[in-house]
Specification:
The structure holds 2 protein chains of 2 kinds. By secondary structure, chain A is an alpha/beta fold. Chain A has helices at 49-56, 78-83, 100-110, 115-128, 144-154, 174-189, 201-207, 225-232, 247-258, 280-290, 305-313; strands at 11-20, 23-33, 38-42, 64-69, 72-73, 85-88, 162-166, 193-198, 210-215, 218-223, 236-241, 263-265, 270-274, 295-301, 341-346. Chain A is elongated and about 75 Å long. Chain B has 10 helices and no strands. Chain B has one domain (22-271). The longest helix of chain B is centred in the N-terminal third of the chain and has 32 residues, at 73-104. At the A-B interface, helix 2, helix 3, helix 6 and helix 7 of A face helix 1 and helix 4 of B. Chain B: It is found in: Cell membrane; Membrane. Chain B: InterPro entries: ABC2_TM, ABC2_TM_bact-type, ABC_2_transport, Nod_factor_ABC_transporter. Chain B: Its main location: membrane.
């Protein structure tokens, strides 16, 4: 009775729907997360990622479609599903009135650990997440990163086989984000299945085996990070020349080599050269040196999340209230907000 | 990351429980009650309604109404002190609902909801902790009463018995306000509905005046009002030290309130 489908996927959702009044926050999403993988749900603010996760986590009712966790129906067997889940995120945080130690003790006791076991498990998790020094400080004194680590620790008390991470690094500085990624990778090595949502292509790229792109409650694409990026477009070699007079020569050279005219921005002495393969950047650079063209800076840029979105959905990522019509998407310039820079050289 | 999926290292799934046992439900409730007491200790201002209020109200009501209702203050005290205990505990119950509403909006409640725990535990836990507040309110009211000349005929045992009854009654009646806490959209709304319910429950009872002086329909309500039943029982215990039928009726009244509002609350909580 406990495991009716021994080979059932960690998560299977079919036609998942959530409506808030007229608004269809999640509009018929299919999802299959295999055991032991990291599955990333990528989408802008307001795309329906958190709503979808909340439904799968039994937190809010499912309005349409079906969902199973390890073969257990989320709607009919919520109590069984809850025993298989650890949830961390914008929802499901820790208690601000308690210290870190008290929080872990609380959640351990609630999940049936004995007093001694709860204490030692809590201490072990605090050590694992590098929070021992802050163990008896009030949560209000925690930094964003410490807070996220404690959130994550609290959802790992029973070593759940499936972990939901809702935007685990949103708002964290790059160093803390890197630490969080390391932690998530370690979880996977222990055999946990991870379903994470993120706004960052970079993060999905770093962590996820497979990615689903969600927009306006719909799944617009699914695949590995490489599949998504190659479906979206190519890298761009961005050059800034020392002398604006060299621009026509550089453009001509690039067109000869690659068969496609680059985009010029004479006022900033820039040339943007589309690449089929990143390797081609070297050919261009060598040719420019042979021609004696002096370069001030070199950047190879992969498609940004904005570009992925533009290609997949016909509009940019926008904000939470972006109800702009698809034809409005004129901002094709790569935004510098995400940093998918692969290589950066300065003279 | 393009590593292959390490299917073979996935640990076996844990054994699952079909439902939460009664013992686990109790343990979860007490764990959450512990959390509520820690919260109380760190936010002592939540104790105002069970400390300052009994001190002021007891003296005020005794001196203002004593002469008018019972001829003099000292003969009014046996009537008003148990009545005020009922009133103060009911006020403290309103705070129980308002605090639940505030708590529901914090992220930690969502974590409680996704844990495999009994649905009643996050509601009943804080209510168990609030029994401490009802206890403080009852003790202080008796204390002030005794200071201004109340001599309970039931002696120590009678007073102790009525304090215990007040605490149990507080826990039971708090289910009404817990339900409102789950229905209201925000803390102010909950406070609003709760006060609208609390005032009739308090004043359409025998807390301050004998019910015979009321118009018949009001008297009829006042006589079956669970608050009246509890206050009659408190008077019997404190003033006479007797476990009368009134005590039985008070417990029945409390049980009826719990039987109605606890299932309603849990059902509502599941849908939130």
């Amino acid at each position: 009775m406990n495991t009716p489908h021994p080979s059932a996927p960690a998560v299977r959702a079919e036609g998942l729907v959530k409506t808030f009044g007229e608004h269809r926050a999640v509009d018929g999403v299919d999802l299959e997360v295999h055991r032991g993988e990291v599955f990333g749900v990528l989408g802008p603010n307001g795309a329906g990622k958190t709503t979808m996760l909340s439904m799968l986590a039994t937190l809010i009712p499912i309005d349409g479609g079906d969902a199973q966790v390890f073969g257990h129906d989320v709607r009919r067997e919520p109590h069984l599903v809850r025993q298989l889940l650890g949830v961390t995120g914008q929802f499901a945080s820790v208690d601000e009135n308690l210290t870190a130690t008290e929080n872990l003790w609380l959640f351990a006791r609630l999940q049936g650990l004995g007093r001694a076991e709860a204490r030692s498990r809590g201490a072990h998790l605090l050590e694992q997440f590098d929070l021992t020094e802050a163990a008896s400080k009030p949560i209000s004194a925690f930094s964003g990163g410490m807070r996220r680590r404690l959130d994550l620790a609290a959802s790992l008390i029973t070593r759940p086989p499936l972990i939901f991470l809702d935007e685990p690094t949103t708002g964290l500085d790059p160093r803390t984000r890197g630490q969080m990624w390391t932690t998530i990778r370690e979880l996977v090595l222990e055999g946990s299945t991870v379903l994470l949502t993120t706004q960052y292509l970079d993060e999905a790229d770093q962590l996820a085996d497979r990615i689903a792109v969600i927009d306006h409650g719909l799944k617009v694409a699914e695949g590995t990070a490489d599949e998504l990026k190659s479906s979206v477009g190519r890298s761009t070699l961005q050059l800034q020349l020392a002398d604006a007079a060299d621009l026509p020569a550089a453009a001509e050279l690039a067109e000869q080599l690659l068969g496609e005219a680059p985009v010029l921005s004479p006022e900033s002495r820039r040339v943007n050269i589309p690449l089929q393969r990143t390797d081609q950047s070297i050919d261009v650079l060598v040719a420019l040196r042979d021609r004696g063209v002096s370069i001030e800076s070199v950047t190879v840029q992969k498609p940004s999340l904005d570009e992925v979105f533009l290609a997949l959905t016909g509009h940019d990522t926008g904000g939470p209230d972006s109800t702009d019509d698809p034809g409005d998407a004129t901002g094709t310039d790569a935004s510098p907000s995400d940093q998918p820079t692969q290589m950066e050289v300065s003279r | 990351m393009t590593t292959t999926t390490p299917l073979s290292t996935a640990p076996p799934l844990p054994d699952l429980e079909q439902r939460v046992s009664l013992a686990d439900t109790l343990s979860q409730t007490f764990t959450l009650a512990w959390r509520a007491t820690v919260k109380m200790r760190r936010n002592l201002e939540v104790m105002f309604d069970v400390t300052i209020q009994p001190l002021i109200f007891t003296a005020m009501f005794a001196y203002i109404f004593g002469g008018a209702i019972s001829g003099d203050v000292s003969s009014y005290l046996p009537l008003i002190i148990p009545g005020l205990i009922g009133q103060t505990v009911l006020t403290a119950c309103v705070a129980t609902g308002v605090q639940l509403r505030t708590d529901l909006d914090s992220g930690v409640f969502d974590r409680f909801k996704v844990l495999p725990i009994a649905r009643i535990a996050p509601l009943a836990g804080p209510m168990v902790a609030d029994m401490l507040r009802y206890f403080i309110a009852a003790c202080l009211t008796f204390g002030v009463g005794i200071l201004i000349g109340y001599r309970p005929g039931g002696g120590f045992v009678g007073v102790a018995g009525s304090i215990m009854l007040a605490v149990v009654a507080g826990w039971s009646l708090a289910w009404i306000f817990t339900f409102f806490g789950l229905v209201g959209r925000n803390a102010q709304g909950v406070q609003g509905i709760s006060l609208l319910v609390m005032f009739p429950l308090t004043f359409l009872s025998n807390a301050f005046v004998p019910t015979e002086t009321m118009p018949r329909p009001l008297e009829a309500f006042a006589n079956v009002n669970p608050v009246s039943l509890v206050i009659t029982a408190l008077r019997d215990l404190a003033n006479h030290g007797e476990v009368t039928g009134a005590v039985g009726w008070a417990l029945v009244g409390c049980a009826v309130v719990v039987a109605i509002f606890a299932p309603l609350s849990v059902r509502r909580f599941k849908k939130l």
